[in-house]
Amino acid sequence: MADLRPLRILIVDDNPHMLKIVRTILNAFGVTLIYEALSGHEALEVARNEAIDIIITDYQMDGMNGVELIKSLRDQNRVANPLVPIIMLSAYSEKSRVFEARDAGTTEFCCKPITAKDLLAKIAMIIDRPRPFVRTKVYFGPDRRRHDPSKYRGPERRSDDEAKPNVA
């Protein structure tokens, strides 16, 4: 696992207690450059003005929810780095919500109650196994496929040129 101390992480949650829990976990990992936002609008302002390495956001927030925030963060006209990795936290782990977050462009999804082990695993995935970004007419974000398409040898296999994602 990489040294997490130099990371600049933004935590977004409208619950101050949850902000403190996530901050405490990150501090235990050695992260000290932590920004906090109590709303999606506040988070966008931080993302515009600071060089953030990872964003951890709640799903359910008043005003702008986490999915709306992710869509705004993926808009290159609204923020400097639309490629920033985003971890979605949610107490709602229904498949439809996970897919909604994934389709908005989240990088990882972590269910509440959050544990240090789970959060570290999500951060490790972002650092150790980053996914390329894909841009289509209806989606911009990390490649949603988790498998390695180069290992598929079946009859439906695309040519190598077709299998390459359109990286932004």
From TrEMBL:
<feature type="region of interest" description="Disordered">
    <location>
        <begin position="140"/>
        <end position="168"/>
    </location>
</feature>
<protein>
    <submittedName>
        <fullName>Response regulator</fullName>
    </submittedName>
</protein>
<dbReference type="InterPro" id="IPR011006">
    <property type="entry name" value="CheY-like_superfamily"/>
</dbReference>
<feature type="compositionally biased region" description="Basic and acidic residues">
    <location>
        <begin position="142"/>
        <end position="168"/>
    </location>
</feature>
<dbReference type="InterPro" id="IPR001789">
    <property type="entry name" value="Sig_transdc_resp-reg_receiver"/>
</dbReference>
<dbReference type="Pfam" id="PF00072">
    <property type="entry name" value="Response_reg"/>
</dbReference>
<keyword id="KW-0597">Phosphoprotein</keyword>
<feature type="domain" description="Response regulatory">
    <location>
        <begin position="8"/>
        <end position="127"/>
    </location>
</feature>
<feature type="modified residue" description="4-aspartylphosphate">
    <location>
        <position position="58"/>
    </location>
</feature>
<dbReference type="InterPro" id="IPR052048">
    <property type="entry name" value="ST_Response_Regulator"/>
</dbReference>
